[in-house]
Automatic annotation (TrEMBL):
Enzyme class: hydrolase
E.C. number(s) listed in UniProt: 3.2.1.23
Domain called Glycoside hydrolase family 42 N-terminal: residue spans: 6-392
Pfam families (alphabetical): Glyco_hydro_42, Glyco_hydro_42M
Name used for this protein in its record: Beta-galactosidase
Taxonomic lineage from the root: Bacteria, Pseudomonadati, Pseudomonadota, Betaproteobacteria, Burkholderiales
Family: Belongs to the glycosyl hydrolase 42 family.
Alphabetical keyword list: Glycosidase, Hydrolase, Metal-binding, Zinc
Catalytic reactions on record: Hydrolysis of terminal non-reducing beta-D-galactose residues in beta-D-galactosides
Originating organism: Ideonella azotifigens
Length: 651
């Protein structure tokens, strides 16, 4: 369990570097990430490389005993490249070229961008690949950030057609797979197919899904190009990428196969205020703590993205950010709490963003561990506190949880292609389901549908439109209790209605069950659902079920239709169920699975790391921890205030 920081030596006078490095080490930081936006300084003109400044920056850090993570600088292509090769620029949905002047202005399908990237990455890796202080490499920065996965460029169009030819083999097969007899959309050749954008009526959802799959593959291809270069010139140095929170536009687990470590950038206040995955009430209640489950969900996701389970927080919010609609100050103690929470979920390293607030350009309102005039800020003091505490808390190895929650990227694209209810947001649904489990004190592993589920006692699937028989098979063999959410099994891989009606292949678990109609529920509509002792509601969405004999309705709508169906080890929830309802269904499934599930006090969350039980408190009122009277604490004590952290031995 180590601490790090993100640092931009090029943004400061060189006279500061040595004291910065010394103060980082004194604070208890061990790892510094640099250079991920420094292309224009590394290669000021095509093929001309300037290493002196970067040599000195790396050596200054190394002399202070710090380890360096080098970022490849490709997220910020320099002006000369754009000028020489305008085709590196991405094109938006209105056909406008995205201009130079910020970052991420490149198109993943541009061959000249691949060539220029390969050149700078090769040069950097040749120079620093065996530098003793450079312990790891980060590819690019936050692929897809600022909505940049997709580009509607000529380069993308050309490659999309080739990708289609590869996937479908013949144009007849494509026409068949997409149902192009509809509206005379039949194509004669792959060269006739365009990009699914800016049409008068909606594009074919099968085409949309194909284009999203293609765009994801393009991101993977670009990353793989960088990884191969780094492996060649920096042998033995782990390669990672810094992913984002609740970001769904490419296949993270597939990229994980090319990486050694997964990392992500955790901004609890920015994510709560700036992403629409939480309610207005939650945004208000947690504006200074962050949502109790948003960072945790992503920790649990990224732990599963690389097979080894190695993961870091590459950027940890350390004070206010600048990019949400409203940027709150963290509650005092929260930077410490977020850091410990990441360690509780198994992180090897938590690296703060950023060393010092910069007084100019786009992020001048974004805090750092130090103020712009170089005094330690509150976040810096809390980082120092964690560094001191780390010396006293043993490092335990994370073990797999007993509960899995399944996420699926292509499934999200499928539902986004035909939402049918304007607020059926897959990330929001995933968060609600995850929260329901976490409020019961359960540890959760967030896994892809391709995972091995053996050893799990409860598997929750918030929604999975495209279900393969193989997935059902693996679930059945696990013997776990299963809970599926609305629209699961509703689509084929090519975006048709599932054969025999939804839930398609899930009928292996629910014999004879059919979804005969679906309904989008506009805001203000809440359908009452009776669920034993719990009175619950369904908003946003419901599947209308035809329930055959032999299946049990555990809950019903007032029109008599089943809301929750149970059969054998499996349950199907037919709508967007409220928190109370989800809590009740999860509690039943957990109890059937033999899992100890107890509702936690408001705002409290638990997480085990090996034999240590951690607790983090996001609520306002002080709480008594569910620890035995004689618990041996290694951090904190039996009562937690808002923003408090504790850890005690389980045995
Ligand atoms: C219009 C069109 C139809 C169909 C319906 C769908 O009426 O003419 O082709 O698209 O909308 O409601
Ligand atoms: C992202 C980026 C950083 C920085 C931060 C600000 O995470 O990776 O470069 O812009 O956001 O919060």
């Amino acid at each position: 369990m180590k601490l790090g920081v993100c640092y931009y030596p090029e943004q400061w006078d060189e006279s500061l570097w040595a004291s910065d490095a010394r103060r980082m080490a004194e604070l208890g930081l061990s790892t510094v990430r640099i250079a991920e936006f420094a292309w224009a300084l590394i290669e000021p003109a095509p093929g001309r490389f300037e290493w002196d400044w970067l040599d000195r920056a790396i050596n200054t850090l190394a002399e202070a005993g710090l380890e360096v993570v080098l970022g490849t600088p490709t997220a910020a292509p320099p002006h000369w490249l754009v000028e020489q090769h305008p085709d590196v620029l991405a094109v938006d949905a209105h056909g406008r070229t995205k201009p130079f002047g910020s970052r991420r202005h490149y198109c993943f399908s541009s061959e000249t961008f691949h060539t220029a990237s390969a050149r700078v990455v090769t040069a950097m890796a040749e120079r620093y690949g065996s530098h003793p202080a450079v312990i790891a490499w980060q590819t690019d920065n936050e692929y897809g950030c600022h909505d940049t996965t997709v580009s509607y460029s000529q380069g993308a169009l050309k490659r999309f057609r080739a990708w289609l030819a590869e996937r479908y083999g013949s144009i007849e097969a494509l026409n068949q797979a997409w149902g192009n007899v509809f509206w005379s959309m039949t194509y004669a050749r792959f060269e006739d197919v365009g990009l699914p954008v800016a049409m008068p009526a909606p594009p074919n959802p099968s085409q949309l899904l194909a284009f999203q799959r293609f765009a994801s593959d393009e991101v993977l291809r670009y990353n793989r190009m960088q990884v191969e270069i780094l492996r060649r010139h920096a042998p033995g140095r782990p390669v990672l990428h810094n992913f984002m929170g609740f970001f769904g536009s490419f296949e993270h687990h597939k990229m994980g196969r090319d990486l050694d470590i997964a990392s992500w950038d955790s901004y609890p206040l920015g994510h709560l205020d700036g992403m629409n995955v939480a309610s207005e009430a939650e945004k208000l209640a947690h504006r200074r703590t962050g949502h109790p489950d948003i960072a945790a969900f992503n920790h649990d996701l990224y732990r599963g993205v690389v097979a080894s389970g190695r993961w870091w927080v590459m950027e940890q919010q350390a004070g206010p950010v600048n990019w949400a609609p409203w940027n709150a100050l963290p509650l005092p103690g929260m930077v410490r709490a977020w850091t410990w929470e990441a360690f509780a979920h198994g992180a090897e390293l938590v690296s703060y963003f950023r060393w010092r607030q910069v007084p100019y350009a786009q992020e001048q309102l974004h805090s750092g561990l130090n103020t712009p005039d170089n005094l330690l800020a509150t976040g810096g003091e809390e980082a120092a506190q964690v560094a001191r505490e780390l010396a006293t808390v043993p490092v335990e190895t994370s073990r797999p949880a007993r509960v899995a929650l399944v996420v699926d990227y292509a499934g999200k694209w499928a539902l986004d292609a035909l939402p049918n209810s304007a607020d059926f947001d897959v990330h929001t649904l995933q968060l609600r389901w995850y929260s329901a489990l976490r409020r019961l004190g359960l540890d959760v592993d967030v896994l892809p549908a391709s995972a091995d589920f053996s050893g799990y006692q409860l598997v929750a699937v918030p929604t999975l439109p495209v279900v393969s028989p193989d997935f059902v098979d693996r679930l059945q063999r696990s013997g776990a209790q299963l809970v599926f959410g609305p629209r699961s099994g509703s689509r084929t891989a090519e975006m048709h209605i599932a054969e025999g009606l939804p839930p398609g292949p899930l009928r292996a678990l629910f014999p004879g069950l059919r979804v005969t109609a679906v309904e989008g529920l506009r805001p203000g509509i809440a359908l009452p659902v009776s669920l034993g002792d719990t009175s619950a509601q369904v908003t946003r969405w419901r599947d209308v079920l035809d329930l055959p004999a032999g299946l049990t309705a555990e809950g019903s709508y007032s029109d008599g239709h089943a809301a929750v169906v149970q059969h054998g080890l499996a349950r199907y929830i037919s709508g967007w169920l409220c928190d109370a309802g989800l809590g009740a269904v999860m509690a039943r499934a957990a109890s059937a699975a033999g899992l100890p599930a107890q509702p936690l006090p408001e705002g409290l969350r638990l997480r085990r790391r090996g034999r240590l039980q951690f607790a983090v408190h996001y609520g306002e009122q002080a709480v008594q921890l569910p620890a035995p009277a004689d618990a041996r604490f290694v951090l904190g004590g039996p009562v937690l205030e808002a923003g408090g952290v504790a850890a005690w031995w389980l045995d």
